[in-house]
Design a protein that fits this description.
heterodimer, A: alpha+beta, 19 strands, B: mainly alpha, 15 helices, globular
């Protein structure tokens, strides 16, 4: 029978309505997604970090590191509130007289999440594979001083170093020291990120699902016997965002409970004023500094470098550009770390001083205004870099002593060039471990300086060597302080701010302050959700 | 020459042209990535690792080899069907295409439905009521949405419907819990939820689709509005329409059954070509809505200077556009013998 068109339409509409009603009824009857307790206490975190490899032998970036500390443990760990490595999978580690062999006694009764027992074989395996795999994205550079690892029974392991290294305990607490199950992890290749059943560790969580670029899902590890023994939450889901603006909107909506790394300064300020959201802030260990090329004019003149140090607008940058989210920094090791001194503040003052800058230039017979080209990079260090360097230019130019030209290059070009062509340039640093040494050696050692700014000082090299071989913390700190004095006197680098550890959480997340410290680690296992 | 053999010859010639097209594209992408400053190693380790380490890693990955050697290696892999592995996160480009390509397919499919629906509805009404306020409004709407950058429209949609009104989610394919619990079969979340019979997940996924698909669809619907309007106006002037009216057929029937159907024929060609623009728009939409499609991944890998990933994804985009244009060309050649070689 041929239906009239209008009737045909009515039949189609009616059928569609029935389908929708069926869907609606079924939807109403189906179980809600988050019905069980563990889902309700699962923390939902957002981040703009990315993950390269979850396998600890294949990563050297913060995003992967954040995932790794949830799955793995170290022989020594940085516990909440302390920057000193403390016993974790090891009950203690001791160095020999020459600080070239470190021997660790392992904790007994520890199991991996799959039930395999933890022994010294796993420790040797973990370190050996980092070197054997030698992954381009990996962390093998941190253990370049390691000659070999030997075991003496199931609960003792020794690290044999090429040269003395007093900071070896810190290395054990980094991603290079994450312990994996030798029965599961191949010796010469990485475990793929999506092979979650093979990503086995002794940490507080297991990785139950990983969708690259989208989501990492963690469930509690029933065999975990760590810092607090018991997790404060029922699990964790990390959602990865490409833009902080989207993450901010999701946080405001409540789609996620918290966000760690990273927002722009303006976004942080706005979130701090948002109802139902709290901005947690603590001292951070990331720093920003201006590198001065000691081989290129005009910064090859000490007087010019000192004048810049006298004029540097640290407080203006911290207030105007970063809305108080960073603190002025007067030495490379950030405030709060043992050994930090305000070396630049003591030598050049805590605020810009044009008169002293003028005097030092005059004493050095430097004609003013000094033409100076300063390089910065637009995206790698965040959108605020433009304002930051405008502020530096303004301050130097306002003194009448400098004529600053700003130039920028995109990171890929910039990072390859640095001191090979630039006379004065922006860089930032995030430490491998929260110790002052990591702010001295990579910048001031003749062989270890990566900035290519030409700096070399035999006295500084000697101090660094002594520090590396120091037998006590007190000795190390003495050398570190000496290094900072020379660093300020020579001024090849001008540090100017240290960041804060900033975390934003909704009101249903608790205990956030427990994990905000100079270790800059997000210990999700300490957080609870109501 | 009979129709069958001319169509066959057209098809063979058309397919043969794909090979040089793709080859030129692969070469262009390869060269552009090499010409752009930096490489994946300096992008990730520059400013942190010593130059000697960066040099060693670059050597390990072959970036210090002559460009022609790298090019030969690259082509050899493509010919073997191996798009390679990303440098930054060790994913096979093939798996990116499968997983993230599915997300892009999901978004562009629903966006195309929105584009065609919006275009058809407004275009038809504009053409039917030519020079009326409805027509003026429709044309203005078409121009404004087409001229508006898709990411700006997306941001507005997020603010209005997501944050201020709180009606819809503003990012991702599904809420975190849904995504964590969903079993993936096809990587198209909408289908996966149906396969599992998980209706609450389906509703969650549908809600997440609304804003990005509507945003992307409306922008490209602007093209269809103008095209359909013009075609409706032209068709309404045809003699057979006058004849239909003269036979006493009702005006509504004349418009919808005669004029509109014929006005749609050229639109089918444009739909295929718009796919290319839709994929381009998907990149901006995906980054705005954190939609994990190929465009979103391309954005991230570009920032990391990840040659393998960028080359692979761009090639896939190009192949999809080539395939779509071939299908449209075949359809046109089938319908209209004049377009055959």
């Amino acid at each position: 029978m041929h239906l009239r068109p209008r009737l045909r339409y009515l039949v189609v509409l009616g059928l569609a309505g029935l389908v929708l009603a069926a869907v609606g009824v079924t939807a109403a009857q189906s179980k809600p997604l988050a019905a069980n307790h563990s889902t309700a206490s699962t923390i939902l975190d957002g981040t703009t970090d990315t993950v390269t490899n979850v396998d600890p032998a294949g990563n050297y970036d913060y995003g992967s590191g954040t995932v790794d500390i949830l799955i793995y443990q170290h022989l020594l760990d940085l516990n909440a509130g302390s920057t000193i490595p403390a016993p974790s999978l090891a009950t203690g580690c001791k160095a020999n007289a020459s600080v070239t062999v470190w021997t660790c006694t392992l904790r007994k009764g520890v199991k991996f999440s799959n039930g395999d027992p933890f022994t010294s074989t796993d420790v040797k395996w973990s370190f050996d594979r980092v070197n054997k795999i030698h992954d381009p994205s990996g962390i093998w550079g941190l253990i370049s001083n390691l000659k070999s690892v030997t075991t003496s029974g199931p609960y003792s392991v020794s690290f044999h170093l090429s040269t003395a290294q007093s900071t070896w305990p810190y290395i054990l607490a980094t991603g290079a020291g994450e312990i994996v199950d030798h029965k599961v992890y191949p010796a010469t290749k990485l475990v793929a990120n999506t092979d979650v059943k093979d990503l086995v560790g002794t940490g507080p969580y297991t990785l139950s699902k990983f969708t690259p670029g989208q989501q990492a899902v963690f469930a509690p590890n029933p065999n975990y016997a760590g810092e607090n023994g018991k997790l404060a939450n029922g699990g964790l889901i990390i959602t990865y965002y490409s833009k902080s603006s989207t993450m901010k909107l999701d946080l405001q909506k409540g789609t996620i409970d918290m966000a760690f790394r990273d927002f722009t300064p303006t976004e942080y300020t706005a979130l701090g004023k948002t109802s139902g959201v709290t901005l947690y802030k603590g001292k951070g260990v990331g720093i920003r500094y201006l590198v001065l090329n000691v081989k290129r004019a005009p910064t090859n003149k000490l007087a010019v470098r000192k004048a810049i140090a006298y004029l540097f607008p640290r407080q203006d940058i911290a207030t105007r550009v970063y809305h108080g989210q960073v603190q002025p920094l007067y030495s490379m090791p950030p405030a709060g770390l043992p050994g930090h001194t305000n070396a630049f503040g003591e030598l050049y003052g805590m605020a810009p001083n044009a008169a002293k800058a003028k005097a030092v230039l005059a004493a050095g017979h430097i004609k003013t205004p000094v033409p100076l080209t300063v390089w910065w990079t637009p995206s790698h260090y965040g959108d605020a870099s433009a304002d930051e360097y405008t502020e530096i230019q303004r301050s130097l130019n306002a003194s009448g002593l400098f004529k600053v030209t700003l130039k920028s290059a995109e990171w890929a070009t910039y990072s390859k060039t640095l001191g090979t062509q630039y006379g004065a340039f922006q860089l930032g640093w995030f430490p491998d471990y929260p110790d002052a040494e990591d702010y001295i050696t990579p910048f001031y050692g003749t062989k270890s300086n990566f900035t290519s700014n030409g700096y070399s000082n035999a006295k500084m090299d000697a101090i660094i060597k002594n520090e590396e071989g120091a037998k006590t913390l007190a000795q190390r700190l003495t050398y570190i302080k000496q290094a900072q004095v020379i660093a300020a006197q020579d001024a090849p680098i001008i540090p100017y701010w240290q960041n804060s550890m900033l975390v934003v959480g909704r009101s249903n997340i608790h205990n956030m302050k427990k994990t905000i410290d100079l270790d800059y680690l997000m210990r999700f296992w300490l957080l609870s959700k109501s | 020459m009979n129709q069958g053999s001319s169509l066959k010859r057209y098809a063979i010639t058309r397919l043969a042209l794909v090979v040089p097209m793709v080859f030129i594209l692969l070469t262009l992408v390869f060269l552009l990535m090499r010409v752009a400053p930096g490489n994946p190693v300096s992008a990730s380790l520059g400013g942190h690792a010593p130059p000697a380490v960066i040099k060693e890693i670059s050597h390990q990955l072959g970036y210090d080899k002559p460009v022609y050697v790298q090019y030969g290696h690259y082509l050899g892999q493509i010919i073997r069907g191996n798009f390679g592995t990303t440098i930054s996160d060790r994913r096979s480009v093939g798996s990116i295409i499968l997983v993230n390509g599915a997300a892009t397919l999901e978004l562009t499919f629903f966006a195309m439905i929105v584009a065609v629906f919006v275009g058809m509805l407004i275009g038809l009404l504009s053409g039917r009521y030519r020079d009326s306020p409805l027509d003026t409004g429709g044309r203005l709407f078409g121009i404004v949405v087409y001229a508006t950058p898709v990411f700006f429209l997306g941001l507005l949609a997020q603010l209005i419907f997501g944050v201020w009104l709180g009606w819809l989610p503003i990012s991702d394919q599904a809420s975190p819990i849904t995504q964590a619990l969903l079993q993936t079969h096809t990587n198209i979340f909408f289908l996966d939820a149906i396969i599992d019979g998980n209706w609450s997940a389906l509703w969650d996924i549908t809600q997440h689709l609304i804003l990005p698909a509507t945003t992307l669809g409306i922008v490209y619907g602007g093209v269809f509005i103008r095209l359909i309007r013009v075609n409706v106006i032209r068709t309404m002037k045809e003699d057979y329409i006058e004849a239909a009216r003269a036979r006493g057929i009702k005006e509504r029937s004349v418009v919808y059954h005669h004029a509109f159907r014929n006005a749609l024929v050229p639109v089918i060609t444009v739909v295929g070509l718009q796919l290319a623009l839709l994929l381009g728009g998907a990149i901006l939409t995906e980054t705005t809505f954190n939609w994990p499609g190929l465009g979103h991944e391309l954005y991230i890998y570009l920032q990391n200077r990840d040659y393998a990933a960028v080359q692979g994804i761009v090639v896939v985009f190009a192949l999809v556009v080539v395939a779509a244009s071939i299908v449209i060309d075949f359809a046109n050649a089938f319908i209209d013998p004049r377009v055959r070689y």
